[in-house]
Amino acid sequence: MGTIPTSYVYQDEQKLDLDGHNKNIYSVGGLNEGIMSTANGALEASNLDTNFRVQPEHVQTEEALRLRQDYATDEVDLFEDAFAKSEEYTYTIANAPDNLWRGVPGAAVRLYLPYTVSAAVWQWSFFINPFRCKVTKMDGTFSAPEVAVAVKLDGSIIAHTKRSIPTVHTYGQNLDSSGVPVVSTSNNGWSGYISGQACQWYDMSHMTTNTAAGWHDLQLCVYMETTGTVTGVGGNARADGSSTALNLRRNNASSLFHNNIVNQRLSFGVRNARVITIL
User: 94 burial class (0-12, 13-18, 19+ CB within 10 angstroms)?
Assistant: First the structure.
């Protein structure tokens, strides 16, 4: 049978020791010391009548189940020039450090647990419209700088939640008559431009057991690589506005050249994060 020792003994006709009485009620540092220091007062089944049944009035709000949810509906665009660093193409999704996965606004939830729970189910949903490029470089190889999503739980990436975003736009690099690198939108063989639609909806979950008391937070994150340099030799390929023209030629008409910067992007629509804990 569960017992809670009380350090202070009440004596008849003696002045009450307030410090001793308070410690009997609650003790900050003592385990199983103080009636309110231990969950349920250390009561066990043997303390109760065999006919006892828990009634709704015995359970406080959020004592057995605790739920939280946060969400956003405003669209947010995440571009590579803000969410990527130049060195990121040296990593893969599998080994990229946690600090290169950056949080998505409006897709996080934070929860405080006053006690350890047997299970916590973390869930997140989001709608995305991506712009991930695949470039045929001038050396004949392909470059597809990575764009991916995953979640962090208490600041650490959960490996099984990593998802690579598909490429939806394909460019081909070539040289114009003056030898200037261009990214062509013509349909001449390998230098063609293809645009595809890949709007997606994700709804995912993760469960933890024996989740400790304290603060916990879940955050949807993005890993995004830069599109590199325009030369197409090594690294990734990029249409850089400082040195590259975007060839807008159609049907063999005269070429019109405009300086442009091509950035990868993830646009998020409706998104949310939620958690339910079980005592």
Answer: exposed
Q: What's the pLDDT tens digit per position in 159-200?
A: 999 999 988 877 665 555 565 555 554 444 334 455 666 688
Rounded CA separation 33/38 (Å): 7
What is d(CA 240, CA 227) in angstroms, rounded to the nearest whole number? Answer: 9
Two tokens at 122?
Answer: 């973390």
| Eight-class DSSP state of 174 | E
CA atoms of 194 and 167, how far apart (whole Å): 10
How confident is the model at residue 264, as a pLDDT? 82
Give the confidence band of 251 by pLDDT, cuts at 50, 70, 90: very low
List of residues 6+ apart from 132 with CB closer than 8 A: 144, 145, 147, 165, 166, 167, 168, 169, 264
DSSP state of 193: -
Q: Which helix (H) or strand (E) holds 20?
A: helix 18-25
Give the angle 199-150-279 at the CA atoms, nearest 5°: 115
Percentage of the chain modeled with pLDDT above 90: 33
Q: Quote the pLDDT of residue 210.
A: 94
Q: How far apart are CA 85 and CA 89, in angstroms?
A: 8
Alpha carbon of residue 182 to chain centroid: 36
